[in-house]
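Quick one, probably user error.
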């Protein structure tokens, strides 16, 4: 089977390695010519995955039509803000029966859409049943080193989900299916907001109790908004909910946690983003989630305070105090759990 992978960041490269090691023919699209030349010369993506050798089965190219034409599966691994324009660029070359797999996590900053909605809006000829979402607690740095991991593939079509499940399943990468596309996408996106908060707690030199409280109450917020948008509550107790939340809030690989850490240490958002090569999707997602919470009248106090830190110059210590001094309430609430 021929596979096209669009995006040579850490995750796109890691998935290309995984597929190539299964003996599949993989074409990997590299946006920048400079990076392409370095990858071809060195046999590794030193900018995003230093020290990881790239299998010879991967064909690198900056020719986007070459990556798309004749491919049974197209894997999208580009930042959320570039996704809409990217799928417009591939639509003429996309095979009618091709399955599109999105691996990015986030919400659009302006329209507050999930990424599958962006894809279907900009790729109107694509059958929704041919679209899949891959999400879970999967740092590229570990998957590319063959550390055991698990993930979720979601699609409205079970056959599509199972095709992608079989495609990505290896002895070190276990794949589960889930029909709840909304929940899987929201779990993968919203946990980044809580991860920024976890980093803030570290930057303020708080301890494990603080982070445990943040993760637990953060999951409640994610579930509240998810249910209001049509997700299934049980999805958030799985890999794309609790699993991804845990790893993104605690791992040194987490870009969103890193942003929060520096915010907690007193740096500004502008200073932090100017120094980063990779995108921390939680920044834009915070703006989108705050807007959605207002529209759907969903209580999301952690998200509200993170919005204040990121966009309203709220001091991190003040945001923590605002959360701790909220009106008292009970822990367990009725969230229509299914």
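Nope, works fine. Designed sequence:
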């Amino acid at each position: 089977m021929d596979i096209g992978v669009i995006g040579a960041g850490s995750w796109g490269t890691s998935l290309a390695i995984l597929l190539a090691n299964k003996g599949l023919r993989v074409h990997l699209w590299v946006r920048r010519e400079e990076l392409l030349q370095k990858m071809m010369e060195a046999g590794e993506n030193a900018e995003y995955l230093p020290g990881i050798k790239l299998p010879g089965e991967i064909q690198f190219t900056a020719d986007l039509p070459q990556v798309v034409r004749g491919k049974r599966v197209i894997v999208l691994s580009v930042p959320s803000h570039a996704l809409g324009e990217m799928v417009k660029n591939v639509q003429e070359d996309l095979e009618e029966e091709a399955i599109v797999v999105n691996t990015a996590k986030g919400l659009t900053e302006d329209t507050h859409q999930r990424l599958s909605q962006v894809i279907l809006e900009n790729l109107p000829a694509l059958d929704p049943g041919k679209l899949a979402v891959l999400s879970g607690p999967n740092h590229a740095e570990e998957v590319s080193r063959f550390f055991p991991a698990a993930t979720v593939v979601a699609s409205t079509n079970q056959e599509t989900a199972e095709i992608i499940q079989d495609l990505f399943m290896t002895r070190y990468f276990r794949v589960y299916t889930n029909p709840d596309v909304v929940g899987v996408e929201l779990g993968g996106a919203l946990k980044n907001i809580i991860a920024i908060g976890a980093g803030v707690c570290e930057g303020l030199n708080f301890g494990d109790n603080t982070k445990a409280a943040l993760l637990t109450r953060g999951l409640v917020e994610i579930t509240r908004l998810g249910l209001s948008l049509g997700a299934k509550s049980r999805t958030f107790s799985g890999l794309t909910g609790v699993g991804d939340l845990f790893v993104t809030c605690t791992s040194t690989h987490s870009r969103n946690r890193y942003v929060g850490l520096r915010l907690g240490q007193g740096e500004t958002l502008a200073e932090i983003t100017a120094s980063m090569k990779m995108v921390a999707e939680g920044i834009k997602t915070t703006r989108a989630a705050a807007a959605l919470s207002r529209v759907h009248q969903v209580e999301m106090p952690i998200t509200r305070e993170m919005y204040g830190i990121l966009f309203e110059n709220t001091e991190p210590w003040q945001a923590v105090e605002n959360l701790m001094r909220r009106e008292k309430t009970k822990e367990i609430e009725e969230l229509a759990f299914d």
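Residues 182-324 form a domain with the N-(1-d-carboxylethyl)-l-norvaline Dehydrogenase; domain 2 fold (CATH 1.10.1040.10).
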